[in-house]
Amino acid sequence: MPNTNAHLDDIRKGYTETANNGNSSHRHFGFHDTTENETVSAHDVSEPQFDPIPDQVPNWSDNQFTHIQRLVLPPSIKRFDHEHTCSNEARFLHQRQASARVIGEHIKEKFRDHRLYKPKEIIQDIHNEFGISYNYHKGYRAKHIALDEVQGTPVESYQILPSYLYMLERTNPGTITDLHTDSANRFMKNGIITGVEKVFPNSFHGACVVHLERNMLGRYGKNNVLKDIFKKAIKVYQANQFTRCMEQLENINFEVAIYITDVEFERCAGAYSLRKRYNLTSSNIAEDMNNAIKACRELSITGVIDYIRGVLQRWFYDRQTSAGKLKSTLTTKADVNICVKGEKARYLTVYPITYY
């Protein structure tokens, strides 16, 4: 506690009693300048009467000491709150906070190798390194800030796409690129069927029956009977069996039959397929491809193209190297199976069916 006696003694030294007739309820005090300057003139202090007692500490809760309390008591801390309540605008530049931009600047180098760096991983890494906790939204914004710093914005990436394709052809002889834009410099989308026929003219392009089934049920309502007949029509290999299935579909819902006809039988029905589809009726291979290149989903357009090119180039190189090591015209797995079956066949007993 502060020495209140010492403060009171200082105040006592600053005044002297000048007059008192014993009847007045007021006292007259004259204050002397302690710096040895001229004496301040006496004046009437219209306050409650009090008598200073040298050996006692005054009752500071008394109303007559209110003005003295304001002069001598120092401020005290009542409560300490360690949580920051100041806004970002009230903080100084040299006291940088863990904003999304600061975090993005710190993690941007981790995106240069096309790393699939998720916001949850960013949050965990920053917490482990600095002990800072923040929400998922800030981690998401930090990720995209870092991506923009490393690879530029999507607008910038599309602007350099023609130059990128030109250099791709120059540095990789035999590469063919084809970019079509309209008068407003927007992409001209002709559809996947047109694209496949132009780029892969000798390849068969079938429709995914899983997507056809989902579209059919989504448009014309969920019907298990309709679903079963559709699957049967797709899998049969004889034209007359396919025709009977289509007639059943027409009886249930004529619009469904029209929908399948518009898709073209050659693209979906095994009975009319131009190639041997066997059991390859879905686009699972496309899903596998999507999974293989998922690390580049959030890259810029040039980054996506470059990543896919790198994946395919690596696949072709690995398979070409493996093919050069083969000792037969069969693949390694097929060659092993033939050898195993051939070894078993050596000990089989042969029973002829006819003379020949």
UniProtKB/TrEMBL annotation:
It comes from the Eukaryota. Residues 1-31 are annotated as: Disordered. This is MULE transposase domain-containing protein.
